[in-house]
Amino acid sequence: MPYSKSLFFAFIILILSPLSAQAYQEDFDGLLKSYVAPTEANSIQYLGVDYDAWAEDPRHARAMKSLLRTNLDTLNTQDEKLAFWINAYNLLVIDLVVKTGERENIRNQSAPFKNPGNSHKWTIGGIEYTLDQIVKNVIRPAKEPRAYFALTQASKCSPDLRREVYRAKRLDSQLNDQVLLTLTNPTKGLKFEDEGAILRVSKIFKEYEAEFAKGNVREWLANYYPDKIDLETTIGYFNFDWTLNKTRS
Fold first, then answer.
1. I want to staple 18 with a disulfide (CB 3.0 to 4.6 A). Which of 35, 71, 105, 235 is the partner?
2. Among 77, 78, 80, 86, CA closest to 22
3. What CA–CA distances, in Å, run from 126 to 55, 122, 209?
4. Could you state, in order of their start, the residue ranges of all structural domains in the chain?
């Protein structure tokens, strides 16, 4: 009996012990590859999610369990921290859609006059977080504006999910790619109008304006379009469609 008890307690400790910051990655990566695909709806091109199939896949529960048990002390470098929290943010947004069964608009899952960014909480590594707290306490202090192109809001007009997890060793190239995916999407990312006099861009630049060249969005974008953007270019924004970024109608 003593031997059996010791095995039992060892099993309990193993089950409850914190995990490394990479433990969730295999399942989350597989889910992204399985259920995220190019989609077009309401004249908007985006990478949509098959939320119905995702919700039925046991990998989601495993990924969430591993994520919530992460030992945050295993995040040693800035890239490790940023990659983890971008992935965490995206997985939590999907979890919100999955666990509530919402299939029309993620904002339906918050009380009147609130938003899902501050009305839902998860405990990661023993610390409670909302989506807004992740942005405020982790993403913004990193001072990496490209990270905002990696955060989904589960809507057609939000930045697209990648069909892979973010990894510290590849984070720079992955974020560069995310920026280009946005800037080359004329249906929700960036579009020149009126013979180039007007530049219409995603509202991500308005929402996080202060993060782009200290609020000078035109200057930040000019790094990508030096021959097309000058002081005379007028910045406008796409209308934001909050309809869920699903693949199934």
1. 71
2. 80
3. 25, 9, 32
4. 13-187
pLDDT tens sequence across 64-79: 999 999 999 999 999 9
Residue 57 one-letter amino acid = D
Secondary element (H or E) of residue 84:
helix 78-100
CA neighbor of 223 nearest in space, from 192, 179, 189, 181: 179
78-100 and 171-183 helices, crossing angle to 10°: 60
State how far the Cα of 165 lies from the Cα of 177, in Å rounded to an integer.
13
Structure tokens at 161: 């999910």
In this prediction the pTM is 0.89
At 160-215, the pLDDT tens digits run 999 999 999 999 999 999 999 999 999 999 999 998 899 999 999 999 999 999 99
More confident residue, 213 or 1: 213
Query: In angstroms, what is the C-alpha Rg of the chain?
Result: 20
Q: Is 127 helix (H, G, I), strand (E, B) or coil?
A: strand
Cβ–Cβ < 8 Å for 166, 150: yes
The answer to whether 23 touches 84, Cβ cutoff 8 Å, is no
Instruction: Check the CA dihedral 153-154-160-162 and report its sign.
Output: positive
Find out whether 212 and 205 touch, Cβ atoms under 8 Å: yes
Q: HSE of 86 in the Cβ direction (CA atoms, 13 Å)?
A: 30
Torsion region of 54: left, alpha or beta (phi above 0 gives left; psi -120 to 50 gives alpha)? alpha
DSSP 154: S
Structure confidence at residue 4 as a pLDDT band (50, 70, 90): low
